[in-house]
Design goal:
alpha/beta, 304 residues, binds S-adenosylmethionine, 2 domains
């Protein structure tokens, strides 16, 4: 039964006041913990994420799939045979022929070595540098067009602990060995970023996302796989469409980056820069890899 005496009422009021004070205090503590967590995440957590960029834990296969796996040993074998002939012809005094053979053999071996270096290490190093140069706040929405087994997707996801990293692909095994959403999920697990990632099966030329859905769109060695020029330009148009005004686009690819830059100009993108990438991204092309970056015009509320 309730105590209705004056003393009982004062005691009850005192308990209610105490409970309210405790609740206010708890909220204040929660708020300060929340604030300090987000502050920590803005500073040291982002610093940790940036150093994590260089750690590769997943298994990302070989770009070019089964064709590359067949041609790479063949390239080394032919290169060695040519070098052997060069030695024989040099001894028999046919120096011009020996020089050509040696040159051909060395070029073949260089192609194979830069291909292997690129696919196993170089692309990770180059993308780590590219992503590290962007001023992430940690809550961005990022799209990786043609993410494959998640090499770049996993890296960019490390930089958006409060954001979202989405990978789109058709999972073509001729473009990357062992390519599948399952392989990508395994890698995202190993990189410790599954909780902030999403994978979608779809074509870059008709992406299943609304307009202005992303702060950043990246693509690594993927768009050149579309055979027709029309199809590649369609993919560039789609990248522009899904970027929000002020959003950034980074495409690293083989051979076609000038074509992409022209299309981006036609589509009114700003700050378009196209440049060659160094030997770490050659992927056997001996100098024909490039990077194109651009910003979507409009409200520059925040630009990466
Ligand atoms: C060489 S792999 C590169 C994968 C990844 N970006 C990387 O750097 O490891 C090219 C990827 O593009 C994907 N791809 C090719 N054409 C595509 C298209 N039209 N739409 C979506 N993805 C496509 C392939 O399935 C493959 O995963």
């Amino acid at each position: 039964m309730a105590d209705t005496s004056v003393g009982g009422t004062i005691w009850g009021a005192w308990r209610v006041a105490q409970a309210l004070a405790a609740e206010t205090n708890r909220n204040a503590v929660t708020w300060s913990v929340f604030k300090s967590t987000s502050l920590t995440c803005d500073n040291s957590c982002m610093t940790d994420a940036r150093s994590e960029l260089r750690e590769v834990r997943g298994e990302y296969g070989i770009d070019g799939g089964s064709a590359a796996i067949a041609y790479l040993p063949a390239g080394v074998a032919v290169g060695l045979v040519l070098a052997g002939f060069a030695l024989i012809h040099a001894r028999s005094g046919r120096l011009m022929l020996a020089v050509f053979e040696l040159f051909g053999g060395l070029v073949l071996i260089l192609i194979v070595l830069t291909y292997l270096y690129f696919t196993r290490r170089g692309k990770f190093v180059v993308w780590a540098e590219l992503l590290d140069s962007l001023p992430f706040e940690g809550d961005e929405r990022v799209l990786d067009m043609g993410c494959g087994r998640g090499a770049v997707l996993g890296m960019v996801a490390k930089l958006v602990p409060r954001g979202r990293a989405v990978g789109l692909d058709l999972w073509r095994s001729q473009d990357q060995s062992g390519n599948s959403p399952e392989a990508a999920w395994r890698n995202l697990d190993l990189e410790g970023v599954r909780n902030r990632c999403e994978l979608q099966t779809g074509d870059m030329g008709a992406m299943p996302f609304p307009d202005c859905a992303f702060d950043l769109v990246v693509s690594s060695l993927a768009i050149h796989n579309i055979k027709s020029s029309q199809g590649r330009l369609q993919a560039i148009d789609e990248a522009v469409r899904v970027l929000r005004p002020g959003g950034r686009l980074l495409i690293a690819d083989l051979m076609r980056t000038k074509e992409y830059a022209r299309r981006l100009r036609e589509r009114g993108m700003e700050e378009i820069v196209e440049r060659r990438l160094d030997w770490r991204f050659w992927c056997g092309t001996l100098g024909m890899a490039g990077l194109v970056t651009a910003t979507k015009p409009g409200n520059p509320e925040r630009s990466l």
